[in-house]
């Protein structure tokens, strides 16, 4: 049986998930129907997709049970969803709040039971049933017993202002299922990682760095944090400490709008990283933060030799 | 039965090896890269993969109509033979880089060439 959008469908023998849905008048996005174009990608929430239906997908997607509906002949009951949908919401309690800089609020929530996530994913935090905003997780499952978020405080931010002024320790808060593909892969253990963030794009990347180290990462890890002024380097001490504790971690604070002396670097994080690393062949690259930075850097590191399979990106779009 | 072109070139593994190289050449090619701007890179790479699978004689279900529909907006923006030639050149250079023998490159080029009129909407 296939469970989709609160309905149940019975596939015929040897019928693909896509064909079964189409036969019932449901048309998820699809195109080539040969397992190549990846337009019909869906996610199995329950049950396992067949290995054939995951051929050619990025490993970050495979590890989250994404599959191609056109080439999946279901072998067991499956509950499926379109990509980028967050199916469940959970309510939990605020543990504490702290300002990390004038513009960044650290929020820690108790991790709800059975809340499974990967470091680097994001979730929506809801002010009420209808108003939510997406925030990246900065915590790491298996190390932190709480969920941590770095909230950029926008002057007109409906959720960030509410979190800053009205939410206190002990408050009940609703969050969604975590999603997102900016996650660490176990096969990267020996590989060099370039983590390039602007602003609170650092949240998922500190999570990925700690997750990698926790899993025994041996390769080099370079963390580039790009901000406007030194005051915006909201995890400076934490990252310095991390680089002192681990000989394979380098932290490169990048300041674009004021003159600075070492250990600070003057310029944009992505440009400094590109100069610094030069040839990206063999590098695994994670990009989070400003959408322009993310999109241009994705292309630059690819042209500089990184494999598309090893470029992971999460563009932050700010809405009030 | 003799091996198909797809098998001779190396099947899916060959496509996977070729896609990064080919896409990188296309993005670096100033004659054509404007047609690839502002499009999600992962989606684009999946399409490049479909194209390479097709050119290598592999399994695909693309029709002439798909090729026409998929490129119509680019033809409106001036896509012409010179751009198609540039893509063919990048395809050849990619296969050369992967040490594919010349006669197989010629076969792949002939398959890719067969969709020229559909791509250009003629």
Keywords:
heterodimer, A: 320 residues, alpha/beta, Ubiquitin-like (UB roll), Elongation Factor Tu (Ef-tu), domain 3, Rossmann fold, 3 domains, 6-stranded antiparallel beta sheet, 6-stranded parallel beta sheet, 7 helices, 17 strands, B: 122 residues, mainly alpha, Globin-like, globular
What does this entry look like structurally?
The complex is a heterodimer of chains A (320) and B (122). By secondary structure, chain A is of the alpha/beta class. Chain A has 3 domains: 2-81, Roll (Ubiquitin-like (UB roll)); 89-176, Translation factors (Elongation Factor Tu (Ef-tu), domain 3, Beta Barrel); 186-315, Rossmann fold, CATH 3.40.50.80. Chain A is built from 7 helices and 17 strands. The longest helix of chain A has 13 residues, at 202-214. The model of chain A has no long low-confidence stretch (mean pLDDT 93). Chain B has 122 residues and is an all-alpha fold. Chain B has one domain (5-119): Orthogonal Bundle (Globin-like). Chain B has 7 helices and no strands. Chain B has helices spanning 5-9, 11-28, 41-55, 64-76, 81-97, 102-113, 116-119. In chain B, helix 2 (11-28) crosses helix 3 (41-55), helix 2 packs across helix 5 and helix 5 (81-97) runs antiparallel to helix 6 (102-113). The N and C termini of chain B lie far apart (36 Å). The mean pLDDT of chain B is 90. Classes of the chains: A alpha/beta (320), B mainly alpha (122). Chain A binds chain B through residues 31-34, 36-38, 55-56, 58, 298-299, 302-303, 307-309, 311, and chain B through 12, 16, 19-20, 23-24, 27-28, 41-43, 45-47, 49-50, 53, 59-62, 66.
């Amino acid at each position: 049986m296939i469970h989709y959008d609160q309905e149940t469908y019975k596939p015929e023998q040897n019928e693909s998930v896509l064909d079964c849905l189409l036969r019932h008048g449901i048309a998820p996005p699809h195109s080539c129907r040969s397992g190549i174009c990846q337009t019909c990608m869906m996610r199995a929430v329950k049950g396992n997709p067949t290995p054939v239906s995951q051929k050619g997908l990025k490993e970050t997607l495979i590890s989250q049970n994404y599959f191609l509906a056109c080439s999946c002949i279901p072998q067991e009951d499956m509950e499926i969803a379109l990509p980028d949908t967050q199916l469940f919401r959970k309510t939990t309690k605020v543990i504490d709040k702290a300002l990390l800089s004038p513009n960044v609020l650290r929020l820690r929530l108790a991790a709800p039971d059975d809340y499974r996530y990967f470091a680097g994913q994001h979730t929506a935090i809801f002010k009420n049933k209808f108003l939510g905003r997406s925030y990246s997780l900065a915590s790491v499952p298996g190390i932190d017993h709480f969920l941590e978020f770095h909230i950029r405080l926008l002057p007109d931010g409906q959720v960030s202002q509410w979190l800053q002024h009205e939410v206190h320790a002990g408050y009940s808060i609703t969050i969604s299922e975590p999603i997102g593909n900016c996650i660490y892969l176990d096969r990267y253990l020996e590989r060099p990682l370039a983590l390039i963030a602007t602003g609170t794009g650092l949240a998922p990347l500190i999570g990925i760095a700690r997750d990698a180290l926790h899993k025994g990462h041996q390769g080099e890890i370079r963390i580039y944090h790009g901000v406007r002024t030194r005051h915006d380097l909201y995890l400076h001490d934490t990252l310095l400490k991390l680089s002192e504790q681990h000989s394979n971690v380098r932290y490169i604070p990048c300041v674009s709008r004021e003159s600075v002396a070492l250990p600070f670097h003057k310029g944009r994080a992505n440009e400094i990283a590109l100069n610094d690393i030069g040839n990206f062949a063999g590098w695994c690259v994670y990009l989070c933060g400003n959408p322009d930075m993310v999109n241009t850097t994705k292309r630059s590191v690819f042209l500089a030799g990184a494999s598309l399979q090893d470029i992971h990106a999460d563009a932050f779009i700010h809405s009030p | 039965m003799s091996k198909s072109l797809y098998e001779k070139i190396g099947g899916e593994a060959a496509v996977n090896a070729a896609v990064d190289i080919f896409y990188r050449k296309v993005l670096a090619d100033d004659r054509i890269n404007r047609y690839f701007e502002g499009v999600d890179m992962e989606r684009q790479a999946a399409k490049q993969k479909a194209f390479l699978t097709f050119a290598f004689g592999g399994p695909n279900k693309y029709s002439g109509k798909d090729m026409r529909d998929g490129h119509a907006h680019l033809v409106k923006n001036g896509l012409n033979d010179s751009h198609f030639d540039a893509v063919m050149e990048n395809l050849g250079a990619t296969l050369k880089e992967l040490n594919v023998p010349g006669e197989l490159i010629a076969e792949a080029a002939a398959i890719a060439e067969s969709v020229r009129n559909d791509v250009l909407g003629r």
